[in-house]
Amino acid sequence: LGIAGLDSAKSWLHDNLVGKQITLLLESPQTRDSAGRLRAYAYLDNQNLSVELTKAGLAFADRREKTEMDGAIDPAEADARKKKRGIWATIKFEQMPAWRQAWVKSLPRQR
Questions:
Q1: Which of 31, 89, 53, 46 minimizes the C-alpha distance to 62?
Q2: 3-state secondary structure labels for all residues of the chain
Q3: What is the C-alpha to C-alpha distance for residues 73 and 92, in angstroms, rounded to an integer?
Q4: Chain-wide mean pLDDT for the chain?
Q5: Which pLDDT band holds residue 84 (cuts at 50, 70, 90)?
Q6: What does the alpha-carbon distance between residue 97 and residue 92 come to, in Å, rounded to a whole number?
Q7: pLDDT of residue 5
């Protein structure tokens, strides 16, 4: 929840989670989205996996909906971008998902 993962994120999750127990923290007050999917954060050993994937550059912060973890996910993405981790090492604007491009275009211009 709060991120849009890439195929490399799926590989990371498989490599790091198979056979391990995770904890789900449901997003409140609405625990399901309009498609009926569970809105939850996954934790492994008290680490929020959305934050960890974003920090590693394996996921975009998804700002289409506000979430309880935006305050942790947004800085994780900023750090990954600054340090050129994962996707941020090579990605070009045109390669980003359309929703991400629209969000970037909506930001006030830096002077």
A1: 53
A2: CCEEECHHHHHHHHHHHCCCCCEEEECCCCCECCCCCECEEEEECCEEHHHHHHHCCCEEECCCCCCCCHHHHHHHHHHHHHCCCHHHHCCCHHHCCHHHHHHHHHCCCCC
A3: 21
A4: 89
A5: very high
A6: 11
A7: 76
- Please state, in angstroms and as integers, the Cα–Cα distance from residue 80 to each residue in 22, 64, 90, 94, 108, following that order: 24, 20, 12, 19, 21
- Say how far residue 41 (Cα) sits from the centre of its chain: 11
pLDDT in tens, 36-71: 888 899 999 999 999 999 999 999 998 888 888 999
Rounded to two decimals, the pTM is 0.84
Per-residue b or e along 32-58, where b marks 16 or more CB atoms closer than 10 Å to that residue's CB: eeeeeeebbbbbeeeebbbbbbbbbbb
Give CA–CA dist 80/56, Å, rounded: 6
